[in-house]
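Example A, followed by Example B.
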Amino acid sequence: MRHAHHRKVIKEKRPAKENIRTLKRIWAFLAEEKRRFLLVIGLVIVSSALSLLGPYLVGKAIDTIIAKTANGFMMIAGMLLVVYLALSLSLFWQNYWMIGIAQRTVSSLRLRLFEQFHQLPLAFFTRRQSGELMSRVTNDIDNMSQTFDSTAIQVVSSTLTLMGAIVVMLSLSPILTAVTLLIVPLLFGGMKWITNRTQPRFREQQQQLGDLNGFIEEVISGQKAIQLFAQEKEMIARFLQKNEQLKHAGFWAQAYSGFIPKLMNVLNNLSFALLAGIGGILAYEGMVSVGTIVIFTEYARQFIRPLNDLANQWNTLLSALAGAERVFAILDEQKEEEEEALDLPVIRGEVEFQHVSFSYDQAKEVLHNVDFSVKQGETVALVGPTGAGKTTILQLLTRFYDPTKGKILIDGHDILHIKRESLRRQMAFVLQDVFLFQGTIRENIRYGRLEATDEEVVEAAKQANAHSFIMKLPNGYDTMLQQDGGGISQGQKQLLAIARAMIARPAILILDEATSNVDTVTELAIQEALTRLMNNRTCFVIAHRLNTIQHADRILVLREGTVVEQGTHDSLLQAKGFYYELYHRQFQEVS
């Protein structure tokens, strides 16, 4: 079974031109540090030249010892000291500057990726695990960072050293150069065999790591439900399975890449043996000096070592390319379009749906020819069974999705021509599941309008009936909340959500049954706060309990994506239609 899986992975390897395209995109980010990078390249050229000069001077020093010329030896020894000191300094500074370039580049890329998340439609996030997306921001970019730190310099340095070594070796002895080059076909043949098996494994490893991160994030956020349903063993079993898949992918990626240093050691030893044997014969025949053989042996190492470095860096590069592909895949996602969109500073709140239909997957419509209008300041309740389309209507109104057919107008403007930011800035939401950010209560309320003053925060909390419970907390408005409001009750979360909506000063208010799952006293406080919030605003209310919307100006009754009835509570009961059936069925269930 494993062999079959192995064959499948190999067939999925990317063409070389795709790798080149990814490298070009990485270079586009590195190019922002162009001047510093050119300076580093200059130091790399200097260090490569110095590393080639060192062995040459060593060979000449040996020849001067054999020739018994002490003055020449001392001069060469002094030159060697200067060369290796300069080499050390150039290596230090090129690494120092390259690390800075790498970190700034990766920081820029991470920022671009994070900004991209805020420009993608909601549909993108519904298809992805948040942990898997987090893996791209952290693991994949960190993987690229480690490669930038070392690989860019190493590739240039190794290439220059390789070319320089060949030129110098040819000038010293074409015969010994030919001997050294005998290993090149063996090297490239072995590298091709290893690379064809390594690259798909690195890509699979990154994918499995992202999948595991997504699962871990899901388990941690859903820990309460897991414990309530006693599913700990099931979660551990699923983790073991995913962890085993990651281990298997990582094992083969590292196993194949581990062949590279072994191959290089074999070729290095083979090259040294050939040079020693043939060089000895040439020295015996007087065709080369002993110093030349020493120089050549060192240059052979200078030739093999860059190849070895390039081979090792190739593994790192393949892993980084796998991560870069996943990052660029997000950057290539289509953003929410804002072409020729209007920026409306103030809206009245008149809403009109004109024959709107919508489908999430282009296969099955969830809304069919929905047609209604809402006047400024009117409260409209949306009722109907689960899946009727209530939430979808509000997601279209807020432009999380756009209609498949028809138009939605606000103050006579097609919302497709209104900037999403401008539109949503004039809306506020009080939902059944309140999300609070990690931070102080003051910061969470101010999230509705960041420029609000401390006095406005307190006034909004008073209007939302939240001030009294806030002042009873240890640090009042400066009390720190954990993510999702850990430490306060569900009712208190709702009051903070109302305060956040109050401070936003919206023209359109969207409510999703904000009084569910709270005690009677808190429900009264919430209802009183909502009454203040809804005053003189256009309001859309998703109603789960029909007795809470009796005073709505109009009720839209939805069934299977269609508005089947609309009117006031009393008129709909008198009509004895679908609303009448829903109301009495719910009343009987409660009683």
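Example B, a separate protein, is given below in the same form.
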Amino acid sequence: MNFKTRLLALMVVSVFLLSGCEVYQTLYGSAPQEVSEAAPGKVVRIEGSLAKEAALSKQAYAAASATQHDPFKTGDNPLGPFDRGNSLGFTMQQWLAASGIGIYSIDGENAEAEFSFKNLVPGGVYTVWCSRISLPPNFSVVDKPCGAEDGSQNSFTADEKGNGEFSLKFSALEPSTKDAASLMAVAYHSDGKTYGASPGDFGLNSHVQIFYMLPEMEGEKAKYQVPVKFVNHIDAGFPEQDVFIELEEKKEEAMPEVKEEQPATGEAVEEVKEEQPKEEAAPEKPVEVVEMPQEKPIVVVVQETDLVSLQPEAEDPDKAANLVFTYTSPLDEKGEWQTTYGDAGEYTITVTVSDGESATAREVLVIVNKKEEAPVIDRSKPIESGLAIDETQSIDFSVAASDLNKDMLSYAWKFDGADVGNEDQYAYQSTYDDAGTHTVKVEVSDGLSSASKIWSIEVENVNRKPVLEEVGGISVKETDRIVITALATDDDNDAIAYAISDSRFAQEDNVFTWQTDYDSAGTYEVTASASDGQDTTEQAFTVTVENVNRPPVITDIVQKG
């Protein structure tokens, strides 16, 4: 059964699992709090009915610094205000529209997640976190990346429509209990970066958008599946944690106070005259009254190497014929910027329109996401991949690599799978024991992607001659028995065959014998040899047999005639 079929079957019961989970019921208990009006430059968290009303049309902001999660409002300042950070380029309504469904499968200690997401930030960089929460009164959170501990497996990027897919096999999470819960959280990174084992700074550059909390399981099951439906903080009964809005003073409340004070003192009148122009000329007023940002938020998301080309539109009440647009760097006078590798980041660009007498400016946030490119091995030495050398010869290897992202590159050399170096070059020195086929591999990595090259080396055996011990000269007398023992060694441990050049000697393996007689006197040049089947080593020596005088022998005696 494929993923979509299983998902449809499991989602039928997902609502009942979520509503019946005691952990979720525990979390829904906090009542909404009123948020004090924020001063200029301040932002607040929203919750409850406020999140369902006018706040939805407001622009979403990051905080100016990291903000600690406080979903249960146990701290002194759970909702803010906080110092305002950058505009995130979307409204609160767009942020809360994100959704996700999927399947979480358990098989013993192993788990597999298959998730599908909609209405994420278009082109946004996301990470998935497997967290453990201890519930109040001992509230604490431990955030760990799903999968590898270094965070190399938990990221994905939404497409241009805000859709995303994520699948991973990893260790099963602890089951949720009444005192602690396991959850999987999906965090958007407004700076387009991920931070490995760390989620980044919540509220500043890391923003948990939706999450799923594992339900309590009845009894112990070795193998089961759970349908997953992600929710946002608001729908789960919490305050929104990592995305904020800016609150302004209500005009209808401010005006009656001024009217009551006007007869009493002129100072109040002067204050009204100072405050009213500020409200009318507030730079963010166009963002609030124009509904277009909800459909086309003033944020441009591209990848490195994409062309940024802005085409602003403007209307002039005076029907000015010629409106002139100007742009701040890095855009040119045409409103274009050809990005390249290394340009990843956020850029606030000001677009100004002028009718010749007055001008209006508006900011555009251009987010350039990193376009990951694998390193490229441009040159390698030796050029050929199949190499052959004799034992005791050497080969020098080297590579020249480049990375379009300008990332720092690391090198890893392996000889027959064993690590042998971490520079851009490696020298292989063969020995007499290396005969056979070997591989040399280099892998060049930028930390995310890698390129590799493999060489095959055929090392030919080089035979080493046997070494024959010196025999030395031999001197005996006639009738003596000569015994010569030839001794040889072979570094290749080859079998050795022995021989002697003089046929007078009888051979038994490496032992040669000659039983001399009274006719053996003389000097003989003899050569002993040892062979390993390929090469022969010889040893020449002299054998001297000295004459032994024999007394005369009376052969017969006869009578003289």
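On Example B: The radius of gyration is 44 Å.
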